[in-house]
Amino acid sequence: MLKVLIVDDEMLVRVGMKSLISWENHGFEIIGDAGDGEKALEIMDKQLPDIVLTDILMPNMNGLELIGRVKKRSEHIRVVVLSSHSDYDYVREAMKLGADDYILKASVKPTELLSLLQELAESIHQEHKLIMNRLESTTDSKSGTLEDRTQSYLRLLCESELTDEQFADYYNRLHWEEASGSQMALLLRNHPMDAFNKDQDQLLKSLTYLAEQQLSPLGRIDSVRYKNNELAIFLLNMDLHREPLIEEHVQDLIIAAKRFLNITISAGRSRLFQGIGGLLTAFIEAKEASKYSFYQDTGGNYGYQSDYFSRRSTTGFPYAIKIGVDLEQTIQRCDTDKLDQWLSGLFMDLQTKRYEISIVLDIYMDVYHQLKTIGNGLELDWSAIDTTHSPLFEQVLHLETLQDMEIRVRQLATSLIEASERKRKGTYREEIHYLIDYMQQHYASNITLSSAAKLVNMSESYISHLFKKETDISFIEFLTTVRMNKAAEYLHSTHLPSYLIAEKVGYDNINYFGRAFKKVMGVSPSEYREHGAKTFQ
């Protein structure tokens, strides 16, 4: 039977879908239903569906984000959007993300739903048939040596979506020795990602030989190149008394690769499984564990943890710029301290929350596009800021760790601020530039429009008009924003009471300070300290 997952935030819709047709009589099994995308992914952790029926507008994780996550997990899962009449734009976006079809959930008839499901079932069966044909040819005893067939089969295992039962069946056809003891999988990831391309065949052979030398005491070793920079290793029939030594042997392999081949590898280790049927799951776990180097470090030895990536959705993600920091104004005003605070908070939050890597890379692309948009708005030459001159997707591919991402974002943001400052000095009148620098340094002083006018030897009315003309913001608004940004820094980095912070940024009246802070930052000082501090730390 084909497995179906139903996702909709309305319980009546979920109940209605489950009762609309006789699912099992037509070859379908409902493996669960969920009220949002996050709960759907939790169900998928336990059992992958063949078909997902999902709403779009849902809390926590909406349908569009869920579709993206589902397709990244498996391109073979079919997705049907449960649409309303007003959802056309969303449906179009869902189709771009890989949704296969849609139905109007309010008016769908049993015959329509069944017809759609049967079409999807036929395409799934055809796809499975192609995989089975490849498996048949792979395991045919006439198609090369056992070693060749083993390599082809393991590659198919890594790249296709077999079930554990299919793997066990075709394992027997390879005439390998009977499975006993424990089985597990490793995925070795080479850093940098293009290192194998230097002399890929020889380097891969050398790494394979090292792996066999270091790991063969554990049991039978079979390996296959998975991707350009990855080697999948399957440890079969391991002696029970050797299991406590697995981590030590893998660590020895990492050290040997560095010593003899001068390459840095990270290793992802699956859990142990009894019997050959769990080896496919073991490979999936090893692949997941190998990703932990993104948050920790390259060259590590990582065992699979089911809850390592603790957040699947960016719902509640605090760095939408609107809480505490306006990135565009920060760059326009060349406030490097504020930029550093925001970036430090962003990457501290990412490190702490450990979002799935695909989400983090999406955040990188969002920040990149935002910085580029700011640069274009300031009429700056982006090619002089992003000096890599490489497509964004290539940049993303080379972000192997969160630290790589932070370095890259800081480089872009710093270059943007430097370019903005050069332009500001070249475009602002000297008097305006002087006043901006003065406010940045003397924000705690009693600065008024009158005192500012005297500093540059102009009338109050003229300096007010000129300041607004050149900065697109009034003198008082600019000064207030400078002071509130400094106040936010005090709230974040100190335990000073609000009334003392108010005095430090030039306010004698705590109530007036509180109103001004909320107007600029969107939250009160106490709310900022309570919520903002948690996200910045």
Explain the overall architecture:
Residues 433-531 form the HTH araC/xylS-type domain. There is one protein chain. The two termini are 49 Å apart. The strands form 2 sheets. Strands 6, 7, 8, 9, 10 and 11 form a 6-stranded mixed beta sheet that branches. With 537 residues, this protein is α/β, with parallel strands linked by helices. The radius of gyration is 29 Å and the shape is globular. Helix content is 56%, strand content 12%. α2 (37-46) packs parallel to α3, α20 crosses α22 (510-521) and α20 crosses α23.
Which structural traits does this protein have?
537 residues, alpha/beta, transcription, Two-component system response regulator YesN, phosphoprotein, two-component regulatory system
In a nutshell, what does this entry contain?
This protein is α/β, with parallel strands linked by helices and 537 residues long. The chain has 23 helices and eleven strands. Strand 1 (2-7), helix 1 (11-20) and strand 2 (28-34) form a beta-alpha-beta unit.
